[in-house]
Amino acid sequence: MTGRMITCDFLVIGGGVIGINIARCLKRQYSDSSVALIEKEEHCGLHASGRNSGVLHAGFYYSPDSLKAKFTRLGNERLTQYCESKKIALNKCGKLVVAKDQTELASLDELLKRGQTNGIQLHHLTAKEAKEIEPRAKTFERALFSPSTSTVDPVTVMEHMREDASSEGVQIHTGSPYLGREGATVRTAKHVFSSGYVVNAAGLYADKIARDFGFSERYRILPFKGLYLYSDEPAGSIRTNIYPVPNLGNPFLGVHFTVTASGSAKIGPTAIPAFWRENYGGMSNFLAGEFFEIVRRSVGLLASSNFDFKRLAIEEIRKYSKVRMVELAGHLAEGVRIEHFKKWGRPGIRAQLLDIHKKKLEMDFVLQGDEHSMHVLNAVSPAFTCSLPFAEHVCEKITVAQNKTVHEVGGASRLSTASRG
After folding, report:
1. For residue 290, which of 93, 167, 276, 394 is within the disulfide window of CB 3.0 to 4.6 Å?
2. Phi, psi of 346 (to 5 degrees)
3. pLDDT for 54
4. Are 237 and 278 in a shared domain?
């Protein structure tokens, strides 16, 4: 081992929106305890947390028994209040969900039902009423409108949350990638940490770190690349976010219009299978071991999966074409022309969890842990929206798990006395 030994009561791995808020929550809950956070990059939030769409979702997509349903509505309220208190620009533009044809009306009705069950304010509109909200919107007969959906700049939010964590007493160590666990210590590139409890919120690497602690045996991260194509039309050309009716059998919402905090529009995202975990572009961050592992797993899913990986992969790869992206966006709104969409935004990578035994994508948040460590294995969209109440949920599980092993997958919890050193 090299580097100075640092002793702390809690060590959080990962400086994204989930890790930062878990650390803040632990410091509030255990005010006399020391909380340290390690982040491999030189700044927090450089991956999914700073590259997401910035949409504060309302919470009507998710099945009522899910953690996502439980935390999205509350997260929207809490994060909206946070942004207002910090004077962070918030575009309260709402969201329209539009139907392409008759076949999508049943799914539109299911979204309305879920929204009502989840306590979400939704307006069921005629096509004419939808046009009054967004004159360019195209829908078949009916649409849904969510007034509580809004957008914000996620980078600005992350900057404020990091500042809050630091001022609240969290010790933040950037440029400190996790290198491994050795007994009761965690080794980084700069220091060795001896902690009473470890929380793993490492996003794209959460599954690998969890396996060092005896968890994530049946799970692996399958990365998907998300790209947005930006419009050069004047701000306000699209008034509200416009989404298609999603396929409720997979976690992706399809190409849609997002109105940014500044009022400009973008279309996307893609969900293109990535070939390594940080496959943002070109050969940057290439790791041969990851490449061969992910390619091997993807080939296996092409042969057999319960979510038609082959069709998904083919359709998503086609979205590398601006023409294809604009074509899909044209199903949602009038006057969508290729000449207005010239600039790709920064790509993001979705750290999507795969159950390798069942060969299915996990739809809900997934936690595993015991009295020594807790691992946030699946914190995909809408994790940004959910971050404040979800972090408190993780802290509650940690409190319970100090004495008993907690395994939580989706909304189901199982307690046992089995110990994992």
Report:
1. 276
2. -65, 130
3. 96
4. yes
Sequence-distant (≥ 6) Cβ neighbours of residue 409 within 8 angstroms: 362, 364, 366, 367, 368
Residue 260 has pLDDT above 50, yes or no: yes
Distance CA(147)–CA(350), nearest Å, equals 26
DSSP E strands: which ranges in 147-283? 150-152, 171-173, 178-182, 185-188, 191-200, 219-226, 229-231, 241-244, 256-259, 265-268, 272-273
Whether 75 is covered by a domain: the verdict is no
How far is the C-alpha of 126 from the C-alpha of 3, rounded, in Å?
Answer: 64
- The predicted-structure confidence for 332-363, as pLDDT tens digits, reads as follows 999 999 999 999 999 999 999 999 999 999 99
Q: Please give the Cα distance from 266 to 255 (Å, whole number).
A: 10
Q: Give a yes or no: residue 77 inside a domain.
A: no
pTM of the complete model: 0.93
On whether both 32 and 125 belong to a single domain, the answer is no
List strands edge to edge, sheet with 272-273: 272-273, 219-226, 348-355, 360-361
**Is residue 284 located within the same domain as residue 257?**
yes
Other C-beta atoms lying within 10 Å of the C-beta of residue 374: 28
Q: Is 70 among the domain residues?
A: no
Range of 166's domain? 4-48+155-217+362-416
Quick: pLDDT tens for 135-187: 999 999 999 999 999 999 999 999 999 999 999 999 999 999 999 999 889 99
Is the omega angle on the peptide bond into residue 273 within 30 degrees of 0, that is, cis? no
Distance CA 242, CA 264 (A): 13
How much is the CA Rg of the chain, to the nearest whole Å? 21
Please give the Cα distance from 292 to 3 (Å, whole number). Answer: 32
* Three-state DSSP state, 292: helix
> Are residues 166 and 211 part of one domain?
yes
* Residue 303: both structure tokens together: 């042969």
Place of tokens 């083919």: 314
φ, ψ at 416 (rounded to 5°): -145, 170
